[in-house]
Design brief:
Four copies of one chain form a homotetramer. Helix content of chain A is about 65%, strand content about 5%. By secondary structure, chain A is mainly alpha-helical. The first copy, chain A, folds into three domains: about 100 residues, Fumarase C, Chain B, domain 1; about 220 residues, Fumarase C, Chain A, domain 2, CATH 1.20.200; about 60 residues, Ribonucleotide Reductase Protein R1, domain 1 (Orthogonal Bundle). In chain A, helix 9 links the parallel strand 3 and strand 4. In chain A, helix 3 crosses helix 22. Chains A and D meet through helix 6, strand 1, strand 2, helix 8 and helix 10 of A and helix 6, strand 1, strand 2, helix 8 and helix 10 of D.
Amino acid sequence: MSTKGDRLWGGGYEEATHPLVQRMNASVSYDQRMAREDIVGSVAHATMLRDQGLIEPSDHVAILGGLAAILKEIEAGTFEWVEAREDVHMNIEAALRDRIGAPAGRLHTARSRNDQVALDERLWLRRRLLGLAARLVELIGALSEQAWDKRDWPMCGYTHLQRAQPVTLGHHLLAHVEGFERDLDRVLAVLDRMDVCPLGAGALAGTTLPVDRNKTAALLGFSRVARNSLDAVSDRDHLLDTLSAAATGMTHISRVGEELVLFASAEFGYVKLPDAFTTGSSLMPQKKNPDMAELIRGKSGRVTGNLVSLLVTLKGLPLAYNKDMQEDKEPLFDAVDTWEDCVVLLRDMLPAARWQKKTLADALDRGFLLATDLADVLVGHGVPFRESHERIAVLVNALVKEGTTFRRAGATRIAAELGVPREAVADALSVRKALRKRDVVGAPHPARVGREARAASRRAVKMAAEVVRRQAPCEAEVLLAAAG
Amino acid sequence: MSTKGDRLWGGGYEEATHPLVQRMNASVSYDQRMAREDIVGSVAHATMLRDQGLIEPSDHVAILGGLAAILKEIEAGTFEWVEAREDVHMNIEAALRDRIGAPAGRLHTARSRNDQVALDERLWLRRRLLGLAARLVELIGALSEQAWDKRDWPMCGYTHLQRAQPVTLGHHLLAHVEGFERDLDRVLAVLDRMDVCPLGAGALAGTTLPVDRNKTAALLGFSRVARNSLDAVSDRDHLLDTLSAAATGMTHISRVGEELVLFASAEFGYVKLPDAFTTGSSLMPQKKNPDMAELIRGKSGRVTGNLVSLLVTLKGLPLAYNKDMQEDKEPLFDAVDTWEDCVVLLRDMLPAARWQKKTLADALDRGFLLATDLADVLVGHGVPFRESHERIAVLVNALVKEGTTFRRAGATRIAAELGVPREAVADALSVRKALRKRDVVGAPHPARVGREARAASRRAVKMAAEVVRRQAPCEAEVLLAAAG
Amino acid sequence: MSTKGDRLWGGGYEEATHPLVQRMNASVSYDQRMAREDIVGSVAHATMLRDQGLIEPSDHVAILGGLAAILKEIEAGTFEWVEAREDVHMNIEAALRDRIGAPAGRLHTARSRNDQVALDERLWLRRRLLGLAARLVELIGALSEQAWDKRDWPMCGYTHLQRAQPVTLGHHLLAHVEGFERDLDRVLAVLDRMDVCPLGAGALAGTTLPVDRNKTAALLGFSRVARNSLDAVSDRDHLLDTLSAAATGMTHISRVGEELVLFASAEFGYVKLPDAFTTGSSLMPQKKNPDMAELIRGKSGRVTGNLVSLLVTLKGLPLAYNKDMQEDKEPLFDAVDTWEDCVVLLRDMLPAARWQKKTLADALDRGFLLATDLADVLVGHGVPFRESHERIAVLVNALVKEGTTFRRAGATRIAAELGVPREAVADALSVRKALRKRDVVGAPHPARVGREARAASRRAVKMAAEVVRRQAPCEAEVLLAAAG
Amino acid sequence: MSTKGDRLWGGGYEEATHPLVQRMNASVSYDQRMAREDIVGSVAHATMLRDQGLIEPSDHVAILGGLAAILKEIEAGTFEWVEAREDVHMNIEAALRDRIGAPAGRLHTARSRNDQVALDERLWLRRRLLGLAARLVELIGALSEQAWDKRDWPMCGYTHLQRAQPVTLGHHLLAHVEGFERDLDRVLAVLDRMDVCPLGAGALAGTTLPVDRNKTAALLGFSRVARNSLDAVSDRDHLLDTLSAAATGMTHISRVGEELVLFASAEFGYVKLPDAFTTGSSLMPQKKNPDMAELIRGKSGRVTGNLVSLLVTLKGLPLAYNKDMQEDKEPLFDAVDTWEDCVVLLRDMLPAARWQKKTLADALDRGFLLATDLADVLVGHGVPFRESHERIAVLVNALVKEGTTFRRAGATRIAAELGVPREAVADALSVRKALRKRDVVGAPHPARVGREARAASRRAVKMAAEVVRRQAPCEAEVLLAAAG
């Protein structure tokens, strides 16, 4: 049960807090993950207060020194978090008071927990999204390399999980690269849209003291300052943006996961996952299960759940801050952690996958994947497409009944039945030629696949540099390091 | 990085596991919450194995003794959980091997982690749902008491958050009792539907050993045995049932939360929440915020998110067990914890709320809540309802323009304008009489409200007994206690 | 733009309604689906009013006659629905007024649209859920028949989509029967829980007129009367129950859909779907796509979306009726329609599926599905399970490296390596014997599968009768038919 | 039941389609909304085919003429949609064949329904998102005007729905402008990210014919061409982006809706909604319900549901096209329609709202909103903030017990108790001065609010021009118009 001393707001209170209330009210068990951001924010705030003459230079020095020391304790794992102090902000403030006394009390000048938490979330998110961007770039790079390597490995392309037309493994891998590049773009867009400093909004109505919000924002590396104090403390759009991007990104990953599960099955046999990425069964000695592929497929559930969680929580809340918004952190943290883990896993697992070139090629020889190419032969001889399509469909149906395939029926017979030259049919039924005929932008001609793979690699290198540039520490972090 | 010795399935493996794989693969950080259930299940399984002659009586004694000792360590917090051992099952099995040697290896006879985890989840859920049922009963009891106490406190009834017709506070509280009773019914229905023992399903295809599944089920207090082994290990309906019930239950709670936030506002002023259930502001000294009411409103988000999480994860999974299903526990645990916390909070907070009788009554005197009663007077004098409605609407509109109310306009004038006896109008405009006229089943006549409150109390007492009856320990728990 | 005459509540209004407001406010485009229920409810209400002396017998006769005539128009598709009349209730009331004049105005005595819509939803839901139950019973029956027919067709059982242990196709099909039986149970539970008549709750506070709520409830076939008027008009639990059950049921269906897509692929080749249930490609002449299997997998999305939709809408609403609740119908209607369509589709498609007995059996002979059985042989010779597991895992690994299988390696060699009698190994490697050894409750021994299939069929017959019993028309429906 | 002639893929089929299959398979009932886009896409495709010499100029003329005529029929409502022709694409193609004969068959050259539907969705979405952007700009403009008008109307600012600090109504309205501007930004970002032409991807693997994808893209106003054919037909990110933005946007709208419901209540009384935007009760003659505010709050549910629907549907789908994806359109259409309706409604309703200046101001005089300002006075006199906070909290508590307020207690007494000059206290307790003291960026000083309102208006004007610029018809639309 908390005592007045722990509750920084206890002045008007006469009753102790109900124990369950204290536990439910406290967020420190999870928001302590934003400790570094909380401290960096305080460094910037204190520095601005000093520059504006709102606190003494000596207070500033004491505050920065105290904060640096506290951060060291936190990073060393020796800091004692107190639930009765509710959250990361109050824990650090109280520790600062214990350590430096009166000046600590001045740090809260012209600041409220409402704008403080809004700031911390943005700083935390900035750091994590940049990390995620870096991991996505690595995944894209790794996939592009593999796509280059497998640019000319023939493979069945599927629609409806039915064999449809020939592609190459490299082409297939590059399809996923496209999705991951869009994910990266989304992450960077979230970063740009959230590049707004809420500090100075106070609890909801700004402050009566002559703060310099642009100064604080600059110290923290923000481009802009929030234009409206009520919005600054109640806006959680950047969290929704992140969760939306994460849900979409995890949907991509679930699709890759599903494919790996399928391709690693005995029935497909397209890929062997290395021991390092499978696990066995405690009962069935023969099993090597694609657990990781399954897990990343399944984890799309938790991230979609996280998104829904925050959408429901925010629904119908009037301005400005409401306590409901304390529920914003856990889904955010979980979604970002999960997404990053899955990206890292794919980054390491996909290059280690052992694709089975022969099995991939053999599958192409069975079935009727080149039926469209045969229809194109008819079109080339002046038959309207719809009629060509129908004639080939009838032919396929007849062959299926005979239990044979194009390959086994042979070009001569097929040419005779269709009334076109044998050579044209033979050409149409060559996988190698079929791939080379698909020679338009985005199609699986191996040379095109190779060029696209190289282009994707180059884009990844460029994006990596951009992410590094953005990861440079802001001025407040430099000040903090200097104070340590 | 795990070594063979830790991985119980490592026989066919030559590579070490990737560190991230080990972490993502491991569930022990959260599934250790099912340790008691895992041990109780093993006690039942071992006892059945002994009775069937599949293990020696001496092995049985050793296993039960070992398990009892391990449970003590776990409950004392001294048990060492090892991530490389993946999950609660393997941790306990390995600890048992360390402790009793060879007989530990025989415990896994005719059992797989697939049926084991299916069992543990059911046992855990049974315990927690019964606890939740008990808390719901207490909440219903507390609310019914308060409803009895406030059965005749007049209050505005609202639709569209507009004052509509008079009710009593007791009547309003009983509306929520109805929802909580349905929640309780849902919880009990989940318990009944999941009262099926999966043990003996093995990994997916039963077992070749002559186990007695009915025996194990009886030891564990189940009424039935799963009829199909594939279903037994892949069915997670009881989790979906629980999460669905939780999402609905939390929706109820969110509605109570919203009302408390509204009613505690300065504008309504209907209730004062005691200090023990509010918190202050670190910036604004005057604030006493209804944080708990807001939190329970907001937490409907996380529980809806948990439900979505599992629905997405299970979507499209083929039979039987898939690793994706490891993701089933965290949303389940979180939802049950959250729901129970919120029920307990309401149970304690609602009786402590200080309802403001005078403010509630004053609000009734403003506005036109008795317009429907006036319309009923016309109906009583033979005017068709639709015409009555229109005439009263015109009257109200005129009074609003004058800036007056029924009360201030007075019965004489209104009676004259409507062409009905003054006495009938005066009767219609008396809140006390208006309430007493609402004398049909479910209506707010204070005597009816009182009877309904008493009936709800009686039902709660009866349900409490039923829950206690169901909470009696099963035979396996008794054996475990005896072995301790 | 609506005029006063159309708006039954227009008495106090001086401005016309904004056109978009009229459109958004109107629900008649979709709630007209409850027209029959609205009319049946009115028949019951009018009959009770007459019995209580609240309306004249002649009015009752006129009302019933008018309603019966209107219903005929509606069913004939000649009824003119008017958007400006907002909803199904006002459309029918206005049509009744046009048809029978003054008595129509008396029908709304002691009733509000709030309790009326609450009633209509329950009646509509009762009818539709009973229909759904009937379809589920038919699906269960059809699946059970097929399971009986295929009770001894050997098939790979899967975990992690890896071949795991032998089962039979009948056993596999029965796993899905279990899920559908739980779905049926859930539907019946929803029906029981919602068997409560809200009529008489008025807008929110009951009525001042001496209605007999039990009489109305009895006429409509309800067992109970809502105990609290506020709850009666704001409770939407039965909708959430239905949507929860639908989301779970559709998750089951999505799993069957996924399996059909997999099994119909060239790689598995386990099943051929008949032409009537596949569609072709407009481009690729050879394709026969399992569109229906895909669609029923994908439609789990819309139903989970429907559930979320209503949970979000209801979150945080204060008592009693709020306009937000108008949004409750479309997700409900869509979910029930979708679920029923998918059940019907499966009911017809599954019996028409052509399972490929030889392909199913061949898959069993490749791979190492009987590894667990081999481990059991060692256990039978006194080796602790964990050690047996490890030795078999090492053996499998060695054989995989050699590129051979148990079958090709042969029992003699394996027996030698394991140090057990050849005969025991040969037995363990016989699929036929392996299935017959799995002779415990719920395991795939063909005789057991047959018994379970027969038992499921019997349960389906019994449930069919129960559903028919519940579908008997209520007294109000009989009165309506008589008036027509 | 469809006949071969209707099914463009029927060549290999011998059985008729099951009636339910035909209905479930058909999407024409809703995808006909993309008819214009389908036709525009065909115009561009045909034009490119002609330029590449793949069809004759005369065919091109016939095709364009036929398509223009068909579009006219569609827009006139006289076009006959045939369910058996499945979707919008096949309906239009068949109609074209009926109208112009053989050349119609050549239009499908080098195109598949897979890339065609991907294109149509992008074109439809582009048109609708630009329309939505225009509406958002209008809403922002309208709100900014109102904010300018009310820039100095004092109003309570809230946190936790408790009166917290003074703001102005203009300031409050501008908070919502911020959210709507972010929504607009998100819409434009979706438009940019989806500005990629999928045509030429064929069914999944490009085409063997020498198409010019860049030409087609340019005719349709796209900046880029999809780089990978598999991704082009299976990517639905732009739908997820739209739905995510819509869910966030509707969350904003739900918050405005909640505030309007609150502010229109008798208890708050801050706003009167005009008759055109409220509706009455069919039972209670006095009611004017804020139905529209409730509806837009509730409709956040359906849009969040739509988002979840598509996330679930896409989860775990392997490449490339799967039939599940047919389920992508209804949630998209519904979400865009709903969002736009709600934006339009707010655009018209908010300017018509009659804000109650006096009621807003009166609320400020009750309570203790200026407690923070009082604490700031102490800070100004050298008291550390935490101590100031505590002393004011104690003071407030004492006054509450007395049943008085700051205003009634008076500056003299308060100054004495706090030991600070009377004038400082009087200044702190003046709302007018309090607002003027909040003179930092984003704070509610009326002059700042005015400047922000003007700046927002200017941004809206600029964005309006940008949207108009983007709405210019593409070349294919010009060609189509010329052919009509």
